[in-house]
């Protein structure tokens, strides 16, 4: 699940880096993921920047010389142009190049060459569960579980993705199960007697594609019935892992690749952006997909620039910032680490 590709297409080196990252345990923000923007936004504003919510970017603006000079965002029913000397896109390589750039920039040979080097990652399916009962009552653990139905990971993945959509839920190859509430030391104080689970697996975009033009929450009974087959199959695995949650579910919601497409603008419902199999990690591709683009003043950041997942996206941000500042920020981070360690040892 880490790289989001077939085992045969996963890079051993990349997987080793990810496993090493988890060996001493993962981190979870106190108060939940919302604490990340809550603390980052004041820093941005203190530096003279600003953050807009519910203002999707419609397109990247270019000046007469073909340089990126701003973005057009939708605010209510209006479009507002925001001008800036540097444009950084975390929308992913496909959204940035195919949706946000005007046709003349999209047609640049360098950009077309980059697009030919990458493919879309696999779509994702999520289940969110709200429970009555504390972590102790329900036996929930602050642990990430990867549950597989067998040892032939390659075979079960291929069989699943080759399934017709009516049979796919019977062949789910893995589920990732975690309890955000159990990881958060502030949860019980904020929401006493309540708990949550989040479950993730893969799902082909094509299984749900016929409803892509339907309005969210109004996709019809056939869509909801198909979604329910996945939710039911996934929950049977979760009940085996946490049997005490049966009869304690207060909220249950499934999200398909179309859900991801709607809420996080992933073109084909993918979690990890561009596919990060071995072809993506070849020398030529790594050398081509840099933070700076063929459009002057436009930069890429996030997981498509580096690796999939949260840590991969952070690495993409460091690479992008280093490119713009013309300074190796990894050196700064190493110095900061030593400084913090020295400060900690004095306490």
Categorize the overall geometry. globular
Order of helices and strands: HHEEEEHHHEHEHHEHHEHEHHEHH
- Sheet with the most strands, sense and barrel status: 5 strands, antiparallel
Number of strands: 10
Query: What's the CATH architecture of the largest domain?
Result: 3-Layer(bba) Sandwich
Family: Belongs to the carotenoid/retinoid oxidoreductase family. CrtISO subfamily.
GO molecular function, one term: all-trans-retinol 13,14-reductase activity
Main location: endoplasmic reticulum
Protein name: All-trans-retinol 13,14-reductase
Primary descriptors:
FAD/NAD(P)-binding domain, alpha+beta, 40% helix, 15 helices, three-stranded antiparallel beta sheet, 17% strand, 347 residues
What does this structure look like?
- This protein is α+β, with helices and mostly antiparallel strands and 347 residues long.
- Helices cover 40% and strands 17% of the residues.
- It has 15 helices and ten strands.
- The protein has a five-stranded antiparallel β-sheet with strand order 6-7-8-5-9.
């Amino acid at each position: 699940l880490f790289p989001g590709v077939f085992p045969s297409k996963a890079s051993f080196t990349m997987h080793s880096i990810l496993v090493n990252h988890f060996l001493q345990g993962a981190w979870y923000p106190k108060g939940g993921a919302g604490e990340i923007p809550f603390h980052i936004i004041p820093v941005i504003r203190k530096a003279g920047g600003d953050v807009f919510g519910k203002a999707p970017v419609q397109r990247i603006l270019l000046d007469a010389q073909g340089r990126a000079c701003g973005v057009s965002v939708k605010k209510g029913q209006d479009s507002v142009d925001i001008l800036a000397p540097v444009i950084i896109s975390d929308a992913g390589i496909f959204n940035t190049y195919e949706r946000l750039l005007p046709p003349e920039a999209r047609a640049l040979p360098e950009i077309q060459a980059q697009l030919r080097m990458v493919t879309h990652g696999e779509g994702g399916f999520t289940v969110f569960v709200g429970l009555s009962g504390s972590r102790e009552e329900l036996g929930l653990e602050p642990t990430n579980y990867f549950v597989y139905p067998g040892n032939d990971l390659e075979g079960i993945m291929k069989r699943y993705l080759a399934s017709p959509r009516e049979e796919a839920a019977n062949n789910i190859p893995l589920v990732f199960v975690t309890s955000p509430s159990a990881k958060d030391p502030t949860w019980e104080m904020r929401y006493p007697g309540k708990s949550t689970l989040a479950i993730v697996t893969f799902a082909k975009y094509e299984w749900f594609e016929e409803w892509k033009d339907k309005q969210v929450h109004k996709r019809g009974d056939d869509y909801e019935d198909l979604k329910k087959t996945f939710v039911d199959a996934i929950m049977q695995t979760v009940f085996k892992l946490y049997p005490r949650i049966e009869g304690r579910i207060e909220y249950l919601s499934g999200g398909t690749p179309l859900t991801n497409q709607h809420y996080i603008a992933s073109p084909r419902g993918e979690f990890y952006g561009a596919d990060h199999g071995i072809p993506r990690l070849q020398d030529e591709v790594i050398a081509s997909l840099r933070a700076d683009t063929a459009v002057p003043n436009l930069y890429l950041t996030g997981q498509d620039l580096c690796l999939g997942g949260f840590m991969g996206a952070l690495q993409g941000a460091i690479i992008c910032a280093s490119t713009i500042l013309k300074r190796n920020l990894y050196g700064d981070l190493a110095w900061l680490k030593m400084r913090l360690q020295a400060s900690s040892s004095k306490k």
